[in-house]
């Protein structure tokens, strides 16, 4: 039993042990009957990271209907400027998170003018000769009012991305010169405060860090602009506590650029945001292969790890967020980034980001493009919407060091539970044919609480040393599979039942199945399992 070596002599080890199989709830259970056993090892001594309790964030973008990629125009009416904010499904979908963070931004944000009655308020229009393919566009204050009514109704926490290219000139080599002109941002901020609209954070710029995407701003200049933003927030919100966060730079991680930026903003930035599009362009026909390849998924850990060590070695007090992440750039890919298969990538990203102490993770997008949590035309939730909601309901703030032995095709994460004193596991099976029977082992001491009086025979349990009550415990499991086993399906099953809206457009309840804790967790081929074990109390979760 090789795992004993891993947990060393001083540890207590529990295995949940039998050969039961949760076939009733596992749609794809063992297509060819193959089963492997494995162990989830959880170090319960201390947390390796802490996420915000409102870790889940999604974006709204500025793209007009004329935004097209590779011949398809996937944004419809999903822009901040034209989205139907009274849609009932949209309202329920956002409310369900209580709260959802929403980051407003994207490529065109740096070209947005906020209506200030000093210049005409003209919408974006397509123009191939212009930076990012569109002219400058304007946010009418009446629309800003509507958006804020929507945020208030849904309880969303809002992060607004400001127009960081204002006042600069752009050289032909893509470098922007000059300082940010904050006067237009100031007028929006003062209007917002005057109206009593609540802002969670003001973020400066979109994808201008490092080499930039189209345009770049030097770290030194960006640092002084961020200090200017923080001063502005302090001034405009002088009578308010807490004040909105100052957030920057909302771009791709580049170690040299970020290091310099952090050194020069050590007291002036609350959150450092970075963007992730690690699967390449949406036009790539091999996106699914990339998602199903564990070593490919692992690669993004380098970025998280480098950013974490850059933060740690800096004097900054800032924390890290993923400010925008859509997996595949140029609007994603239809029937991949809005289908079941994308939950493998998305939930793995949420798990991985958490282990590197990322506080918040913003998914591109809430709606719009081919990577929306909601369908762009019908507003009906895509599979990733439910994946995010389950994460939001089950994964607590303390992140536990977790590994899996048995097969490389299992991705394993664990947090302290959100609604109990126990833990929640997230297991993702990337294998198309093998059911994994996962037993759980804890490193370090723990206690088992006993809520239910149930007959117990201790035979199926190994607990070293001491007695145990595992046979008397139950856990709650949420098995996610694709309809008909089709990875490209936009319909997801929870414990074998379709997740869909009722006729009123309400988000369905997410109901668990109860499983005897002495059974291993059966993770069917191409499935995702959240398992909450309410009665195991680890030191890290006290
Ligand atoms: C949105 O839903 C409709 C109806 O189910 C479907 O035909 C369409 O393909 C979906 N759109 C996207 C972009 O997924
Ligand atoms: C499972 O994946 C393997 C490797 O990619 C492939 O060769 C095999 O045909 C697949 N089997 C099924 C049942 O889809
Ligand atoms: C769990 O399974 C064990 C062994 O089959 C049994 O003794 C025990 O009563 C079961 N516990 C519950 C809560 O059903």
UniProtKB/TrEMBL annotation:
Q: Quick one: a GO cellular component term? A: extracellular region
Q: Which terms in the Gene Ontology molecular function aspect does this entry carry?
A: beta-glucuronidase activity
Q: Where in the cell is it found?
A: Lysosome membrane; Secreted
This protein's membrane topology, according to the annotation, is: Peripheral membrane protein
The major lineage groups are: Eukaryota, Viridiplantae, Streptophyta, Embryophyta, Tracheophyta
Q: Where is the signal peptide?
A: 1-26
Tell me, what does this protein do in biology? Answer: Endoglycosidase which is a cell surface and extracellular matrix-degrading enzyme. Cleaves heparan sulfate proteoglycans (HSPGs) into heparan sulfate side chains and core proteoglycans.
Q: Which family does it belong to?
A: Belongs to the glycosyl hydrolase 79 family.
Q: One matching Pfam family, short form? A: Glyco_hydro_79n
**What name appears for this protein in its UniProt entry?**
Heparanase-like protein 3
Q: Which UniProt keywords apply?
A: Glycoprotein, Hydrolase, Lysosome, Membrane, Secreted, Signal
